Every structure is written in structure tokens, then in C-alpha cells.
Amino acid sequence: DQQVKQNSPSLSVQEGRISILNCDYTNSMFDYFLWYKKYPAEGPTFLISISSIKDKNEDGRFTVFLNKSAKHLSLHIVPSQPGDSAVYFCAGLNTDKLIFGTGTRLQVFP
Amino acid sequence: KAGVTQTPRYLIKTRGQQVTLSCSPISGHRSVSWYQQTPGQGLQFLFEYFSETQRNKGNFPGRFSGRQFSNSRSEMNVSTLELGDSALYLCASSYGGTGNTEAFFGQGTRLTVV
Q: At residue A103, does pLDDT exceed 80?
């Protein structure tokens, strides 16, 4: 039972453009949603989170949008940079238990 | 402040053996969670320990077990290894308090079962 789904395994975006990574969930009990970024041979690094009672959270180039009625969240990166190339995981948090999606590999090309 | 430390970084074991992985959390963090990452499956939650007690558990067989010590360090044990246990095992630490959202991950232990 995949409670958090990232249906796009990969995304390719030109430098300077917007990257939009999507995530769907089925569990209505998540308190927070988080985005993590992972480079090869490293552990995931926390990027940004959003409370389930909010619909938007912004931190620099990163903005997360939450649509509770659609059970959908998205991460926007503007402008995209080559250093953003990595695998991005979204996760739902429920009572200190993180449930991750399968990840989306973002490649930002010059 | 030191980050999350996992040892060893790489491990090769044969089927049927057992293995113990170690995780030292960030100082002051009381919650340690373990995850398994395999291609196509993302990060799957194994279990979470807080103050030496298992507080959450994922859907893994009983061959996967863990424990946490009084200094918050945690170990994960896998008995009777199977080829499918080959994966990157990650641990994450956090304060573990209500509403805390940020977990910090270690670099992981790459386990290969042959």
C-alpha cells in the first residue's frame, strides 16, 4: 500500500526554468509533508516542509504547495540550477513516522 | 555539531548470515528511525526508537530488529540474510518531540548480500 506516490520517476529541466515535482498521497492522517533531496552516496537532506493546515510554504527558491482536497502536493524550484540535479523524495509525517514516495530524479541542464 | 554517523559504510555478507548496523544520532536527538532504500521502492520505513523504546514499526519481517541505547545510539540487526535484503540502509535522527518535522539522515550503510 503506497501511501505516498511520486508518479514521475524523472524530470529534465533547463537551467533558469521552473522545476515542478509532484506528489500524491492517500493517508489523510499526515500532520506534515516534507521534501528531501538526495545525491548519490549521501543520505537525504531536508529541503522544506509544510503543515497539513497550510496550503503554501516558501523558502528562497523552493515553494511547496498543498492541495488537501486533491491529496496532492508539489515542489516548485525557481530558478532551477544545475546543482539542483538530484533525486527528490516527498514524505508524509504521522506521529514521527515518515512515509516516503519513490522519488523523482531531477536533471537540470545548461 | 557532528551529524548522524552510520557504520560501517559498506558491508558484504552471504545468505543466511546476520548483520548489525550502527547509527549515532546528532547530540541531543532522542529519536532514531531506520529506512531501507532499494531501486524502485524509495525509502521504506523500518522502525523508530525514542528513549530506548520502539515507538513505530513498518511492515518488515521479524528478521529485522533494532534497539536503542541510553545514549540514543541505535543498532539494527538483520538475521538470516536474503539476497533481497541488499539495499542502502539509512538512519535518521530528530528531537522526536510533537510537531518536530525535520529529521537528519546519515550517509547510510550499503549492504550487499551474495
A: yes
